[in-house]
Amino acid sequence: MNLPLFKQMMKIHAKGMSNYAFGSAFYILLMFWLYPGIADNTGALNELLKSMPEGIVNAFNIQGGFGSMEAFISGEYYGLILPLLLSIFSIMLSTGLMARLVDQGSMAYLLSTPTTRRQIATTQAGVLSTGLLLIMVVTTAAGMLGYIWFIGDKYAFNGARYIQMNVVAWMLFIAASGIAFLLSSVMNDEKKALGTSGFIVFGMFALDMLGKISGSVEWLRYASIFSLYRPSDIAAGNGHPLLAAMILLAIGLASFAAGIIAFSKRDLPL
Prior knowledge:
The longest helix has 37 residues, at 3-39. By secondary structure, this protein is an all-alpha fold. It contains twelve helices and no strands. Helices cover 76% and strands 0% of the residues.
């Protein structure tokens, strides 16, 4: 890794990272603020869930109902809003860090310095991973503040499960951003890299959702990394979050490593 390049890239992308981080923090605080008004009607809401098609309930990760704060946010935030938010972030930043620099000719300037291709790619991977970590740390901290401000001792809240949800979400997007980074590392055209990364990442999200809606196509889920991300199970104290996090981390590290190696060996139109 090249530390001066890392600092410069972090400076360039700091505003974008901060926007996503504070946007995520705003949404999670909104969830904690809303819950006390919903908690008094959880019985009616859970009955409503029972009347809904099972596939729809599964697709939106609201199997756990609304009986606890973590069950509520697992469906309302971690099941849909956060995955969409971080998917966009991962695709946009990975493309901006790699393919855009090649497409615009900026990579030639970086390579004219005494810095190897491998160092450049490793540094860019570090910037992407750090951005994801920043967003998840701010989100987690905002949730804990939301608990202190709006929940307190009035309603059930399992902080350990909440942290597990955030850790698994971070690992999910280490994997997703690793895949997007790999694609961006082997493409010269920014638009092509952006479109291909978006198609694959959002395609996997769609496959997971389709597999949850209908049991006849449940097998589609297993072609998607999103099948390992089950916030409603974590909120209920079920599943294997540590195993899921380790598998997602392995996928992410392998994808980043493949991207770094591919970039260091390919021909560049400089």
